[in-house]
Design goal:
Helix content: 25-40%
Radius of gyration: 16 Å
Shape: globular
Structural class: alpha+beta
Distance between the termini: 23 Å
């Protein structure tokens, strides 16, 4: 799923801690700082695998993931189709933000600093959901599943 996983050097860890401390998932920065989690980097090489990753979005307005399958979070590939199919749903500007990232991505102006949490049984995007969704949407029209999408992977040391 995630290839070429390598441990981050201390400078990369500190840089990511500083970055994450300014985001809604600042708790991950604390876990890294305290040594409760470790930070690796890797590459996702399949657009389909990127599309299957779970996001932090568990509810968009009244919309929830397919609970029949036990899902608690939307996957990358589900977000834009759901938002387009339900334009009446208040999404707090999510679709607009994704479209802005898509336009920036086409101009190669997006910094892909994406943090994924490894729970041991699955990977969940913790920071960089909109960037990942925009990358997926911009690339799904190509006839290739091959991508080179760098990510940071947080895993538990405990």
């Amino acid at each position: 799923m995630i290839h070429d996983i390598k441990e981050c050097i201390p400078e990369e860890v500190q840089s990511q801690i500083t970055y994450l401390a300014q985001t809604p998932v600042r708790g991950i920065a604390s876990l890294l700082q305290s040594g409760q989690c470790r930070l690796n980097k890797g590459v996702i090489r399949s657009l389909n695998i990127l599309g299957e990753l779970k996001t932090e979005f568990g509810q968009i307005g009244p919309l929830v993931p397919n609970t029949e399958k036990g899902e608690k979070k939307f996957r990358v590939l589900e977000i834009v189709p759901i938002l387009k199919a339900n334009p009446q749903v208040e999404d707090n500007g999510l679709l607009v933000a994704i479209k802005k990232f898509m336009a920036k991505d086409k101009r190669r102006e997006v910094s892909y600093n994406v943090t994924i949490f490894d729970t041991g049984s699955e990977y969940i995007i913790k920071d960089g959901d909109k960037r990942s969704i925009s990358f997926y949407e911009n690339n799904k029209t190509f006839n290739s599943d091959i991508i080179d999408y760098p990510v940071f992977v947080v895993s538990s040391c405990i």
